[in-house]
Amino acid sequence: MNSGKTMKKKMIFPFVYGAQYYRAPTPEPEYWEGDFAHMRELGFDTVKFWVQWRWSERVPGVYYWDDLDELMRLAERFGLRVILNLICDVMPVWAEQKYPDCRMIDRNGQPVPTEAVLCRQLGGYPGPCYNHPAMQEVRQEFFRAALEHFNAFPALLAWDVWNEPEHHLARRSAADPDHMLCYCPHCERKFREWLEARSPSIDALNQRWGRCYSAFAEVELPRNAQTVADFIDWRMFQLDTLTGEAEWRLDLVREIAPHTFPHLHVVPHTIHCFNSVNCVDDFALAERCELFGSSMMGDPLFAAAASSAAGGRPFYNAEWHINFGSSAMHPRVIDRETFLRELLPQLGWNVRGILYWQFRPETLGFESPAWGVIRPDGSDRPVSRWAKEFRQVLEPHLPQLMRSRRRNPACAILKSVRNELFFNAFPQEKGNWLYRSIRGYADTLLDCNIPFRFLSSEQLEREELDGVRLLILPAAHCLSQREADAADRFCRRGGVVFAEGSVGGYESDTGRYSTRVPGCGLAERWGIRETDSTSPFHLDCSGSVSGTSSMAEGDVAKALDSAGAKGGEYLPLSSPSGETGWGALLLSSLESESGETLASYRNIPCVVKLRRESGTVFYCGTYLGIAAAEQSADFLAGLLEQAADAAGIERPAVPKGIRLTPLYSDREQPTFHIAENVTEHPLTISFSNTCLDLFGGSSGRTFRLAPRSAALFAE
């Protein structure tokens, strides 16, 4: 097997258009032929089948492929390409009986039961611990057998080796520490080995963690986020474990089926729902792939997160959840405007392929009767018509679209896994503070038409900043020294840094809170210092509030009550020119000899702009992103536009409320434009060249966009 680095292929992944179809035992065989004919009528060219461990290996070493063989033959007959999705989180009964110690263990020492869940009706979920050595061997044997068996089928296009990687779908919430996995003896041994490989000595680990171990064999498994340093290491180890699982799966495809496209698909790691405590690192997984997939919904943060992880790799929507629902909430009736509004912007994030989840509605369990492109009786739903029209309209333009991409954005937002884990120690009632801040920045940048991408900590540390001129460090409380050094060098070389919230206050390399903030040496290098910092709950700025509503816990909550606090989460800010806005959850008084004050709270400067050699720093001693997401974004929008101007980032001249994404091929002028009207009233957009509104049918230079609509224009 290779080292995990991606292998360059001469093959080009096509624009796939189709649906997930078979998750045994549904749909039943009597539907197959009619459904495949129906798919072709709708313009579908690709279908996905699940290859489930429990279903296909009911006895050790004896494989049942009959159903999938027939589906593969039918797909070929109907001209459908096939993506096979390996599902190993449905463990066979025999495997658990043979290895009874294979279950994952929760932080209270209790084995996690294997069971049937709504999207794994076969049972055996969530499968074994990923660090159980014998169970890894039997998974590999099953996967190898599947690869070798299906290798000869002409319809096979790609192997999707992992469906939405995570530890356990019922344990996604990072707010509940009892959700953390896994605490089995195999993970304990592997974690100690992981630490020893990364620590110069046990004394160095003791220094960073604040412990007194005499050997790595004494290290205990962390169970509490508020001890911070050990908790971050523990979850980083589990992220590496899942990345390692993905790596061997991908390598097996490269070894046995090199004519196919090895990949996996994630639910985007937005921190909200999928997160670093119980799920995966999208950037680390994408680095192992030549092709990347993602489940998607209408939220642009999903597309932004997955597209950023994909980088320049081919990227497709592996599960479009437009027809979501359950027995208690039947799916929406999708009109044409909603369909286009939720689909067309994905093209602006370089999505080049769509698979609907799923073709036929579910009939087993609580997911029924939702999720289908068609009705349970096989007839078309309204969404079926829009799906067919999309393919028909796009077909003549597909070659040009496949050559066109969104340009690499000049603005990057740091999305740090370590920082996310650090904030897991904070109150979670409204979500992880880093998520809340990123949400505000992402939405505000979209509304300001400042294109952006997310940047991982590793990418920043490696200074993979080609084309970036504006670097945003949201809620950057926890930083590594390499992150801080890279941000400083970026600034001094002429970049613009927009940083907020006790930047580097917690130094991840030392496991200590910095004596000067910003930390990691940035106070001295940037010539700025937080002299005093406080919570706005201590300020008389938001009316009376109790310790309970402040989300404080224990002794802090009691003390806050007794102090008669009258503050709240948000604090009003004002600029020297009289503009007003909001900060959130922190007020740091900033001191700088050469800085220009951009915003204050009652004459306390808390947002400052200063020059550093060839670059500029916007330093914010409050969480502007959180305030933008939860109060008003106008103030942050003005500051970000200043920062973009300082970075020389051009923005399109369009009315407020229109989000515009141009796509380029090999020429200077755009080949396509995706325009969204996110307001409740019609707006007009104009282009310098004549364009064709592909789904509106008209051509010209000026077009009227209906409220809450999206359009695709071709030049």
Description:
The chain is of the alpha/beta class and 715 residues long. The chain folds into 3 domains: 16-174 and 242-402, Glycosidases (TIM Barrel, Alpha-Beta Barrel); 411-533 and 586-647, Rossmann fold, CATH 3.40.50; 658-714, Immunoglobulin-like. Helices cover 31% and strands 22% of the residues. Strand 16 (506-507) and strand 17 form a beta hairpin. The radius of gyration is 26 Å and the shape is globular. Residues 1-9 and 543-548 have low confidence and may be disordered.
SSE arrangement:
Blueprint: E1 16-22, H1 32-41, E2 46-52, H2 53-56, H3 66-77, E3 81-87, H4 93-98, E4 115-117, E5 120-125, H5 133-150, E6 156-163, H6 185-198, H7 202-209, H8 229-256, E7 261-266, H9 282-287, E8 292-296, H10 300-310, E9 315-320, H11 336-348, E10 353-356, H12 382-394, H13 398-403, E11 411-414, H14 417-422, H15 433-447, E12 452-455, H16 457-461, E13 470-473, E14 478-479, H17 481-492, E15 496-500, E16 506-507, E17 512-513, H18 522-526, E18 529-534, H19 554-562, E19 570-574, E20 580-584, E21 587-591, E22 596-601, E23 604-612, E24 615-620, H20 624-630, H21 634-647, E25 658-663, E26 672-677, E27 683-693, E28 699-705, E29 709-714
Parallel strand pairs: 1-2, 1-10, 2-3, 3-6, 6-7, 7-8, 8-9, 9-10, 11-12, 11-13, 13-15, 14-16, 15-24
Antiparallel strand pairs: 4-5, 16-17, 18-21, 19-20, 22-23, 23-24, 25-26, 26-29, 27-28, 27-29
